[in-house]
Amino acid sequence: QVQLVESGGGAVQPGGSLRLSCTASGHIVDRNFMGWYRQAPGKDRDLVAGIFTGGVKKYADSVEGRFAISKDNVGNTVYLEMNSLNAEDTAVYYCNLRSLGRPFYDYWGQGTQVTVSS
Tens digit of pLDDT per residue, the chain (118 long)? Predict the structure, then answer.
């Protein structure tokens, strides 16, 4: 019954910045991985960035150094700071929450469009 609410998507010019946020409501398992995936037309949905319980972070090579993921201290909200955006970042971005212990679950947000164009 976890619900993920996303915000922050939109249109920006190349070189611009955007901040996405995702808030989870409901019962959250203590051990989890929470982050963002993206999917462009005709492509697979790939991990952009995520953060484990305890603070370990993962980034796709294509965004390393440009994006930064963080979460609040109770772990129910995750933020993705996106800098130096380029056209290749254009995609639908999906928030994801995955448990790493029991009960096992894998929740997805509805997706938010990010468009980078001049």
Answer: 799 999 999 999 999 999 999 999 988 888 999 999 999 999 999 999 999 998 999 999 999 999 999 999 787 999 999 999 999 999 999 999 999 988 899 999 999 999 999 9
Q: Would you say 37 and 31 are in contact if contact means Cβ atoms under 8 Å apart?
A: no
Tokens of 78: 């995750």
Tokens of 55: 């603070």
Positive or negative, the Cα torsion across 108, 12, 18, 83? positive
Instruction: Report the relative pairing of strands 10-12 and 112-116 from DSSP bridges.
Output: parallel
Q: Which of 49, 52, 91 is nearest to 68 (CA)?
A: 49
**118's tokens:** 């001049």
90 burial (CB, 10 Å; 0-12 / 13-18 / 19+) is: middle
Encoded tokens for 61: 């090579």
